[in-house]
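Lab notebook, bench 4. Still working through the backlog of constructs that have no structural model yet. Next entry is a single chain of 131 residues. Request: give me the C-alpha cells for it.
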Amino acid sequence: MKYRRSTCLLIAAIVGFVYSFYIMWYVVHDNAVAAQSGETAYALGIAMGTVLLLPHMILSVVADMFNIVGWAANSRGLALTGAILYSLAAAEFPLYIPLVLVQLVLSYVGFVRLKGIRLHNKKVMELQTSQ
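Model written out:
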C-alpha cells in the first residue's frame, strides 16, 4: 500500500497558483500602464479598481497558501481554511466568482476526502511499523 495525498487539493493549489499569478500580474500591469500614460483620470480609475480588487486578491493568495500547505501536510484544518478563504474571496468580489469557483469546489471536496485519505495513511503506517 502507498501513502496517499489529496489530488483535489493539489489541483486546487495548482489552479490557485496560476490564478494568483494572473491576478497579481494583471493589477501590476494595469498600474504600470496607468502610471506611464500620464492621464490623471485614468490613473485614478485604475487606483480605485485596485483598491476594490485588493481584498479579493489577498484572500485568494492566502487561500492558495493554505491549500498548498494543507495538501503537503494532509491537514484537514488547513484545507478547510483554504476553502473558507476561497469562499470569502468569492463573496468579496462577486464579479470574479467564476475565477475562483474551481478552487473553491475542489478545496471543499479535498477537505471531505482527506478524512478517508488520513485513515488509509494511518493503516499504511501501522502495517509498516508492525513488519
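Notes after review: The helical segments are 7-37, 40-73, 76-92, 97-130. The chain is about 90% helix and 0% strand. Flag for follow-up if needed.
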